[in-house]
Write a structure and sequence with these properties.
By secondary structure, this protein is mainly alpha-helical. The chain contains eight helices and two strands; from the N terminus they run αααβααβααα. A two-stranded antiparallel ribbon has the order 1-2.
Length: about 130
C-alpha cells in the first residue's frame, strides 16, 4: 500500500484497471486479507477497520495521519471508504500480480485508437 500511495496518478489508474479485471483465483490471498479487515462484511473498509486490520500485521506501525493519507489516496471514488477493487489495486504492486498480460490489457485501455502508442489526448481522456 505504501508504494501505491507514493505512485503517480497514471500508475494508480492502471492498477485500478487491472484490479477490476484480474480473475479472482489469481488474487485469493488479497481477497482473504480484505475479508479479514472488513469486520462488518459490507465490502468496504472504514478507517477504523483499516487501522484495526493493519495493527495485526507485524512491522506495520501507522499513525492516524498516515491512515488518513492512505484513505485519501486509495479511495479513488472519494466516498470516504475503501472498496474491494480499490484495496486490490493498492495491494497489487507489492505482489507478483503484474504479469505482462495484465499490463497489455491496461495498455490497450489507454491506447484508444489502437495505434500502439498512447497520445496525450488518450491519456487525458482516461485519467
Amino acid at each position: 500500500m505504501e508504494n501505491y500511495i507514493a505512485s503517480v496518478q497514471l500508475k494508480r489508474t492502471t492498477l485500478s484497471l487491472i484490479a477490476s479485471r484480474i480473475p479472482e483465483d489469481q488474487i485469493q490471498p488479497l481477497r482473504n486479507a480484505f475479508t479479514m479487515i472488513d469486520t462488518n462484511g459490507d465490502g468496504q473498509l472504514t478507517i477504523e477497520e483499516l487501522k484495526l486490520g493493519l495493527s495485526k500485521i507485524p512491522g506495520i506501525n501507522l499513525d492516524l495521519s498516515d491512515l488518513h493519507k492512505a484513505m485519501t489516496m486509495i479511495d479513488t471514488n472519494q466516498n470516504g471508504l475503501i472498496d474491494y477493487t480499490e484495496f486490490i489495486a493498492a495491494c497489487l504492486h507489492s505482489y507478483n500480480y503484474l504479469k505482462e498480460s495484465h499490463l497489455r490489457l491496461a495498455f490497450s485501455y489507454f491506447d484508444k485508437d489502437g495505434s500502439g502508442t498512447i497520445s496525450r489526448d488518450e491519456l487525458r481522456h482516461c485519467l
